[in-house]
Amino acid sequence: MATSSLAKAGASGNGQKAATNELKALQDPTILANRVWLDSEWKKFKDGSQTLDETLIGFRAWRISESQDWAVRLNVPFNMSFAGDDPGGSDEQALGDIKLATGTAVRLNDTWRAGGGIELRTPSGTNDALSANTWRLKEIGAVAWDVNSWLTLSPSFEHSHSLAEQGNTAPEHFLELYFPATFLLPERWAITARYDTKIDFNNDNARTHEAKLQVSKSLESIPVGLSLSMKKPLDDDSNKDFQINFLSTVYSPWW
């Protein structure tokens, strides 16, 4: 959610400032950029099962004032689940739960930004096994600090709670905290190291921990960005072995 909406910066496509903002935006919720991206997320679990989620995401930002932007985001996922070693399991695939979000961001000064928003997750999945089967609201807040020209810290939180459940689905209520540090490198490259923690209020305040490493590249000839990340649980009792995400992003100043 960059307070100067990246629409103008993205118009040049090749500018270093636009590339810098594009790389920051991958982990910085205070930078708003007009873009469309495909997020391919693969999770491997210790029982041999796997999931693959292909999510098409559209993001549209508008400038409200010289120091504030507003944006909307739409997530449309297609989910696949593979049973692995479970002889009683079966492979599943279906449309996932569609999410709609809106938010704003303000530039506090040359190095500090802040933003916030809300997201509604709908039980639109066409397979109950792959859907959360709940209407869930998420409140999002973030701050960002450009420590210098090559390092940005952008901690954020996401507070989620279900509004209504379908069938026998249990209520959900949890808080997720993210602490990314993005290092800008020469030739339009960036590396982000991130620590995540989640507190499940409906499970005796159980807390889980994960670490994420992301490598990103903004192409020079066209307004496209590529990113590959790996997330690893830090808890010995976690059922998830690891998670890999590949993002291909098109930045558009025209829509």
Keywords:
single chain; about 260 residues; mainly beta; Porin
What order do the helices and strands come in, and which of them pair?
Elements: H1 7-12, H2 16-25, E1 35-45, E2 50-65, E3 68-82, E4 92-95, E5 99-107, E6 112-121, E7 134-148, E8 151-153, E9 156-165, E10 173-185, E11 189-200, E12 206-218, E13 224-233, E14 240-251
Antiparallel strand pairs: 1-2, 1-14, 2-3, 3-4, 3-5, 5-6, 6-7, 7-8, 7-9, 8-10, 9-10, 10-11, 11-12, 12-13, 13-14
What does this structure look like?
The chain has 255 residues and is mainly beta. It has one domain: monomeric porin ompg (Porin), CATH 2.40.160.40. Helices cover 6% and strands 60% of the residues. The chain has two helices and 14 strands. Strands 1, 2, 3, 4, 5, 6, 7, 8, 9, 10, 11, 12, 13 and 14 form a 14-stranded antiparallel β-sheet that branches. The protein starts with 6 loop residues before the first helix and ends with a strand.
Low-confidence stretches are: 1-14
Could you give the order of the helices and strands? HHEEEEEEEEEEEEEE
**In CATH, what is the homologous superfamily?**
monomeric porin ompg
CATH topology grouping: Porin
Brief summary of the model shown:
The chain is mainly beta and 255 residues long. It has 2 helices and 14 strands, in the order H-H-E-E-E-E-E-E-E-E-E-E-E-E-E-E.
